[in-house]
Specification:
The complex is a heterodimer of chains A (157) and B (114).
Chain A (H helix, E strand, L loop, with lengths): L7 E3 L24 E7 L3 H14 L4 H21 L3 E8 L3 E8 L6 H4 L12 H8 L2 E7 L2 E9 L2
Parallel strand pairs in A: 1-2
Antiparallel strand pairs in A: 2-3, 3-4, 4-6, 5-6
Helix pairs in contact in A: 1-2, 2-4
Chain B lengths: L6 E7 L3 E10 L4 H7 L3 H5 L2 E12 L1 H16 L3 E4 L4 H9 L18
Parallel strand pairs in B: 2-3, 3-4
Antiparallel strand pairs in B: 1-2
Classes of the chains: A alpha+beta (157), B alpha/beta (114).
Chain lengths: 157, 114
């Protein structure tokens, strides 16, 4: 994302049904600098993948880690659609050393440790968060009855 | 924005098997396509079901869940169930989740099952 003078750059789309979500006041610390905010709903996942691919590639993340970051974001955004109220907000930003993707939704993960455990082999097992943990360098989770933030970090080197 | 349908499934019947060839992306949005393809009458009667994933460019955990459900469905019918390797992304997902080592994988959709 090109540097801008505003604190937050909102990406507006014509047809997405998703409303913008404000940050959680007691959640993870707000990033400094430019943040690209993209509200999404169920129909937007395909475009979300294309958008994260284009952004990470432009930020010079190599193809393999880009593919991993895209899968992680997709899995967490899918969880928002399935379990987190049907819509969410994706935030993208870059620090000196890493790309960060955060998904916020209205879901409440009551037991974050359990969500991080290796899933069993049953077909119905939920694997999204666990997959994100495996392929990102760091995954931060904040969850409260007011909503959740999953922040995924990928190193640029 | 309504993404276009990005998954195509072709069914091919051979003497001992039905091959479902998946092309495109298998995620939550189009997983029902595979679910309904598994309900086709020719699949209920075959000895072996092969999912040919060579044209599959993207697979997520929802798609993986549908593939595992298809396998369980085949096993309940007493059928063999196998897949072919997909793209790098597909293979990475199978390997990260540890599912790959438990999926019978053929080099090609026509490979004879031992």
């Amino acid at each position: 994302m090109a540097a801008g003078s505003t604190d937050t750059l909102r990406y507006r789309r014509g047809r997405s049904a998703a409303p913008a979500l404000d940050g959680l006041p007691d959640g993870l610390p707000r990033p400094r600098g430019d943040v690209w905010e993209i509200p999404f709903a169920a129909d937007d996942l395909f475009e979300l993948r294309q958008l994260v691919t284009a952004w990470a590639t432009k930020e010079a993340l190599p193809p393999e880690p880009t593919e991993e970051l895209v899968l992680a974001v997709h899995e967490i955004a899918t969880n928002s659609v399935r379990h987190g109220g049907g819509v969410g907000m994706l935030r993208l930003w870059r620090t000196g050393e890493e790309l960060v993707c955060e998904v916020q939704d209205a879901g409440y993960i009551q037991d974050p440790l359990r969500a991080r455990r290796r899933p069993g082999r049953a077909a119905r097992a939920s694997r999204g968060l666990w997959i994100a943990e495996q392929i990102c360098d760091l995954v931060e989770i904040f969850s409260s009855p007011r909503g959740s933030q999953i922040r995924m970090h990928k190193r640029l080197d | 924005m309504g993404a276009p349908n990005q998954l195509r499934i072709d069914s091919r019947q051979e003497s001992d098997r039905v091959v479902l060839t998946l092309a495109g992306e298998l995620d939550m949005a189009n997983a029902p396509l595979l679910q309904s393809a598994m309900e086709a009458p020719e699949i209920a009667e075959t000895d072996t079901v092969v999912l040919d994933l060579q044209g599959l460019t993207f697979l997520d955990s929802t798609g993986l869940r549908i593939i595992l459900a298809a396998r369980e469905q085949s096993w309940r019918r007493g059928q063999e169930f196998a897949v072919t390797p997909g793209s790098q992304q597909v293979q990475r997902l199978l390997s990260v989740t540890g599912v790959g080592e438990h999926l019978r994988t053929l080099a090609s959709a026509d490979e004879v099952l031992a």
